[in-house]
Design brief:
Blueprint: H1 9-25, E1 31-39, H2 45-50, E2 53-60, E3 64-67, E4 87-95, E5 99-109, E6 119-130, E7 134-136, E8 140-144
Parallel strand pairs: 1-7, 1-8
Antiparallel strand pairs: 1-4, 2-3, 2-5, 5-6, 6-8
Length: about 150
């Protein structure tokens, strides 16, 4: 037995629009960003010996923040294991944001507490994104930052 219901024309159009909107909500497309985070060559290996924690902040078309300790394989990336290494990591970031700019700010600390007076480095890069595409950005260069007090 087949049950059919006939709706008035106005309600049928409203129901159709609601169904389309509902099905579109579940279909997101990622935008991707790819760039390298590096230590300023002028600062060199000294940075790797004093940074104990790195924190990445994302602002603009999307907002996010995360501690950068290990990569997907579990290898330590920030601070680098090798004190002669200027490359911190290659950053591959994805977001549901469809367009606009993403600004990535990496802060290096001499303490895992991330107190402002313990921040000794900062670097930033801004990358334009577009829906479904991979944007390759300029390197983020982590440079020394003067402390605002005594880190304890």
């Amino acid at each position: 037995m087949r049950l059919t219901t006939k709706l008035p024309a106005g309600r049928a159009a409203l129901l159709g629009a609601a169904l389309l909107a509902t099905s579109a909500v579940g279909c997101n497309t990622y935008s991707y960003v790819d760039f390298h985070a590096k230590i300023d060559p002028m600062w060199g290996g000294l940075a790797a010996s004093v940074i104990t924690q790195c924190h990445m902040y994302v602002t603009g078309a999307a907002t996010d923040d995360f501690v950068m300790n290990d990569d997907s394989s579990g290898a330590r990336v920030c601070p680098p294991v090798n004190s002669n290494q200027l490359e911190i990591t290659r950053v591959n970031y994805s977001t549901f944001a469809e367009s606009g700019n993403l600004t990535f700010t990496l802060k290096g600390f001499t303490s895992t507490g991330e107190k402002p007076e313990c921040q000794i480095a900062e670097g930033t890069t801004t990358i334009a994104i577009s829906k479904g595409n991979t944007a390759v950005g300029m390197d983020l260069i982590l440079k020394p930052k003067t402390s605002t007090g005594t880190c304890q």
